[in-house]
Design brief:
Radius of gyration: 11 Å
Shape: globular
Helix content: under 10%
Number of strands: 5
Number of helices: 0
Distance between the termini: 33 Å
Structural class: mainly beta
Largest sheet: 5 strands, antiparallel
Length: 71
């Protein structure tokens, strides 16, 4: 099974397998696109809600990601 963690996060999102990912904002803009990764640095992104589109085993999985403020 595919697991993403932690959520919410302030710095990195980790995926339990190497996958292709796209991080999309609420306006539908692709913010980050990476291939064959198991982590994604989100520390410089504006806090808010994003969609993480994961391509894995010929399927697309969408996960809602919450980027927190750093205190």
């Amino acid at each position: 099974d595919l697991v993403t963690y932690p959520n919410p996060t302030s710095d990195y999102i980790y995926v339990s397998k190497k996958v292709n990912v796209k991080l999309i904002n609420l306006l539908g803009d692709v913010i980050v696109s990476k291939k064959d990764v198991s982590s994604l640095n989100v520390s410089k992104l504006t806090p808010g809600i994003y969609s993480l589109m994961i391509e894995y085993k010929n399927a697309i999985i969408n996960v809602k990601i919450i980027k927190q403020w750093v205190l």
